[in-house]
Design goal:
The complex is a heterodimer. Chain A is mainly α. Chain A has one domain (4-221). Chain A contains nine helices and no strands. In chain A, α2 (20-40) runs antiparallel to α3 (45-66), α3 (45-66) packs antiparallel against α6 (91-120) and α7 runs antiparallel to α8 (160-186). By secondary structure, chain B is an alpha/beta fold. Chain B has helices at 40-48, 69-74, 91-101, 110-116, 132-145, 162-177; strands spanning 2-11, 14-24, 28-33, 55-60, 63-64, 76-79, 150-154, 181-185, 196-201. Chain B has a five-stranded parallel β-sheet, sandwiched between helices. A four-stranded antiparallel β-sheet of chain B has the order 2-1-4-5, covered by helices on one side. The longest helix of chain B has 16 residues, at 162-177. Chain B is globular, with a radius of gyration of 17 Å. In chain B, 44% of the residues are buried. The chains are: A mainly alpha, B alpha/beta. Chain A binds chain B through residues 2-4, 6-8, 11, 14-15, 18-19, 77-80, 82-90, 94, 221-223, and chain B through 45, 48-52, 70-71, 73-74, 76, 78, 80-89, 93, 97-98, 100-103.
């Protein structure tokens, strides 16, 4: 339990819970956006269930983007990132701990509220199930891909737009296949293929991202 | 032993120093001197391995530091300009984190390290409520919990009061006494008669 991996994971979760505001921002944004849509649709239940998956999905992606900027920024500014780069343990392991902590504190809440938002958008229970599964498979990809972008812009103070430009295109395929999977369920077609592709995205980013992030952090911190 | 051979450093295309050669031996302290902007911090970060030299090589015990990274990092303690302390965690939590991440089991515990820096009373206060000098003391306590032979200190005394300066210079003396090496940028010279001292003067390159 005292390994560097656990130490960093515990520290990042502790910091997340000591800043409840930062912790709540993405999930509140998620809830508010979807709720606004349901009001804006003017009580047309038919239309709500048609646009529902797309709305929930776009909101989930945008909420995930909100939390990316801070992944490494704070550590960079107070000098702890420097100390992590100098730690004897492998940087990829530390990066992995940070990303796991990021997903636990931002991705997991999004997954948790998505079924409720599905009900709000008048979706059927089997559609909601697939919606939650796709969000669960994709939020780790957002954390991993987003961390790569965040690492590249860690030295830029105001990098919000740049970061979105870097990471959103990489997240679009995930969005497309998730929405396709949900649409297939709604029209009672098999979804296995779409879900397998989402799993493939997850496995790919899981294997590549920690190394890419570690590499870019080394590069950027050396400036 | 740390050895730099012909290292050249620059920052944003501006040359800071060229073909710098020096050796740091155990029981020896090296002062890096020079006016502001002369590249003292860059040199220190280069010696850590955070920045690569434009040319030249840095050797640790005869091996280039890029080839023995994890071993070198184990032997190294760097206190930079930024303290590397999380404002939302208490002083003790900060040190415990470093204790774990550096796997430093045999060294003094974080509590003992805080005691040594005369900061036991701050152990349970979130660091963002501490003054600049108190934060610096907590950062210096990290030197005690890492099992490092080489200390790289960037302006170790900045923000420290008289008593903390004494504590830190005693720490450095103890470190040198146990065959340690130290490289520091500092405007205030430390006087250790029993240990070797060298100076690197930057700011000559043009």
């Amino acid at each position: 339990m005292n390994s560097p991996f656990m130490a960093l994971l515990r520290r990042d979760l502790l910091l997340a819970f000591r800043n409840p505001g930062d912790l709540a921002t993405p999930v509140i944004f998620f809830i508010v956006t979807v709720t606004l849509f349901s009001f804006a649709a003017g009580g047309d239940l038919e239309m709500l269930s048609t646009i529902g998956p797309g709305v929930v999905w776009s909101a989930a992606l945008l909420s995930a983007m909100l939390s990316l900027d801070g992944i490494f920024r704070d550590d960079y500014e107070d000098g702890t990132l420097e100390q992590m780069l100098l730690a004897p343990s492998a940087l990829t392991v530390l990066v992995f701990a940070k990303l796991l902590a990021h997903w636990l504190s931002t991705g997991l809440p999004l997954i948790a509220v998505s079924p409720v938002l599905g009900i709000l958008m008048n979706l059927d229970s089997d559609v909601i199930l697939i919606l939650v599964v796709t969000i669960a498979l994709s939020t780790p990809v957002f954390s991993l891909v987003g961390a790569f972008g965040a690492a590249l812009v860690v030295t830029q103070r105001k990098a919000g737009i740049l970061l979105s430009l870097l990471t959103l295109p990489l997240c679009i395929p995930v969005l497309i296949f998730s929405v396709l999977a949900v649409a297939a369920t709604a029209s009672q077609q098999p979804v296995g293929g779409h879900l397998s592709l989402l799993c493939a995205f997850l496995v790919f980013s899981l294997t590549v991202a920690p190394f890419a992030v570690a590499g870019s952090l080394r590069l950027m911190a050396g400036d | 032993m740390l050895e730099a051979q012909n290292i050249t450093g620059s920052r944003s295309e501006q040359l800071l120093f060229r073909d710098l050669n020096f050796q740091a031996l155990p029981r020896e302290i090296i002062y890096v001197r020079g006016p502001n902007g002369a590249g003292k911090t860059t040199l220190l970060r280069m010696l850590c391995g955070l920045v690569r030299p434009d040319s030249g090589t840095i050797f640790w015990d005869g091996v280039p530091i890029a080839d023995c990274e994890s071993e070198y990092h184990r032997a190294l303690a760097y206190i930079g300009h930024d303290n590397g302390i999380k404002g939302d965690m208490t002083a003790l939590e900060n040190l415990q984190f470093f204790h774990r991440i550096y796997c430093a089991h045999s060294r003094p515990s974080p509590t003992q390290a805080l005691e040594r820096l005369d900061t036991s009373n701050l152990a349970h206060i979130p660091c963002r409520y501490l003054s600049a000098g108190q934060k610096r003391r907590v950062a210096m306590a990290r030197l005690l919990i890492l099992n490092a032979r080489l200390w790289l200190l960037d302006e170790p005394f900045s923000g420290l009061d008289e008593s903390a300066r004494h504590i830190v210079s005693d720490l450095v003396a103890e470190h040198l006494g146990s065959d340690g090496l130290c490289i520091a940028t500092s405007h205030q010279p430390l006087d250790y008669e029993q240990f070797g001292a060298k100076e690197i003067n930057l700011g000559m390159a043009s």
